[in-house]
Amino acid sequence: MARSSETFSKKENIAKKLKRKKEKAERKAERKTHSDKGKDMEAMFVYVDADGYLSSTPPDPKQKRVIKNEEISIGVSRQSTNPQDNIRTGKVTFYNETKGYGFIKDSQSQQSVFVHANGLSQPIKENDKVTFLIEKNEKGPSAIRVKLAS
Q1: What pTM was computed for the model?
Q2: H-type helices in 34-127, by residue range?
Q3: Of 125, 89, 121, which is closest to residue 107 (Cα–Cα)?
Q4: What is the pLDDT of residues 37-93, one digit of tens each?
Q5: 95, 107, 94: which is closest to 134 by C-alpha?
Q6: How far apart are CA 53 and CA 51, in angstroms?
Q7: Alpha-carbon distance values, 24 to 18, 27, 128, 149 (Å)
């Protein structure tokens, strides 16, 4: 009597393969039922309401507000201050003309402020009384528009 050419492991592998095919077909059918393909364009739209929230219903055209481009500001708005208020007075404690930098001691806060030759409006030297503006840099405060005090 002849033996069957199919062994137990072959039968098992064939059963596993059929099971995987069946699972794959089920997943494909499930994807097809939940797919957005073929839906109308209106179902895919998302609207933004007056408060900035996403909504599936279109906004009421009667509540539409017109915003001018000039009114839109991105980031923090600048504070309008009078530049005369920011003018400080101080005394030059150190200034190296060859290297082009020095320090000014602020008369109001007694803080030492860095000054560079690029921030000078007039040439200065040590012990001069000066007026200046403070600018914030990544390394700290820096004096700009430095002039001799009259």
Answers
A1: 0.45
A2: 41-44, 83-86
A3: 89
A4: 666 777 778 888 877 888 888 888 888 788 888 888 787 766 655 555 678 999 999
A5: 107
A6: 6
A7: 10, 5, 86, 85
What letter would DSSP give residue 3? P
Q: Which residue has the tokens 């082009």?
A: 100
Which of 105, 146, 147, 109 lies closest to 127 in space, CA to CA?
105
In eight-state DSSP terms, residue 68 is: -
Residue type (1 letter), 45: F
- Distance between CA atoms of residues 125 and 120, nearest Å: 11
The rounded distance, in Å, linking the Cα atoms of 47 and 64 is 13
Q: How far apart are CA 128 and CA 92, in angstroms?
A: 5
Residue 32's Cα: distance from chain center in Å?
Answer: 39
SS3 83: helix
